[in-house]
Amino acid sequence: MQPKVTIIIPFYNDPYVEQAITSALNQTFPNIEIIVVDDGSTRHTDKIQSYTNRILYLGKANGGTATALNCGIRAASGEYIAWLSSDDIFYPHKLAIQIPYMLERRASICYTSFDYINDHGQVIEHNVGPHIPNMKSFYQSMLAGNPINGCTVVARKDLLLQTGLFNEALPFAHDYDLWLRLITSRIDFHYLNQPLIQYRRHEQMGTVKHRTVIEQETRIIQSRYAHLLRVLYQELGGENEL
């Protein structure tokens, strides 16, 4: 029997949410649960109404994406968690490819490449991803910034709970913080070099609107984990250039 996967869609005033939910419902993987966490939206909630008999809808006061994700993870009945932003799209075969890949390797967390799409859903860049050749390069990339697209990630729920979930004090770089917590706890990240999601670029996306705050949070996170990453890097024979 296939393991159960919970797809969590944090939602806040997003006009694209219908496309995200539809892409989750269209998964060819047979054993899924879809949780939409409404983080205090005041607009576009009507777009969810026609789906309420096929999803678990959770409403909460506005607290940011990390709080919405944590709410969904705690409520999830799946063994595995997949995060889907409400403006992005899963390809129908995402979980049907990624879950067997993880099971074969006994991976507790896995990320993939992705395609960029525009406001109109047209692919504007194909197979975008870090394409990191080895672990030393991976540690270098992780200290320089966040090369992992959170919506490509599938992780075991028990791993996320053990690690303490997303840091709700970080409104925007909570994913970067969690990845570094996992890495410095010696959890292996597995990379599948295949685009399994469409990541939407648009004027209202958080990475555009909140760039300055994201950069500030990133520097704080880097200073917190730099020493531990350097230890891992040096264990692989790397010098102090990290």
From TrEMBL:
Source organism, top-level taxon: Bacteria
Span of domain Glycosyltransferase 2-like: 6-140
Annotated GO MF terms: hexosyltransferase activity
InterPro entries cross-referenced by the UniProt entry: Glyco_trans_2-like (IPR001173), Nucleotide-diphossugar_trans (IPR029044)
Signal peptide, first to last residue: none
Keywords: Transferase
Classification via Gene3D superfamilies: Spore Coat Polysaccharide Biosynthesis Protein SpsA, Chain A
Family that this chain belongs to: Belongs to the glycosyltransferase 2 family.
PANTHER family noted in UniProt: GLYCOSYLTRANSFERASE (PTHR22916), UDP-GLCNAC:BETAGAL BETA-1,3-N-ACETYLGLUCOSAMINYLTRANSFERASE-LIKE PROTEIN 1 (PTHR22916:SF3)
The name this protein goes by in its record: Glycosyltransferase
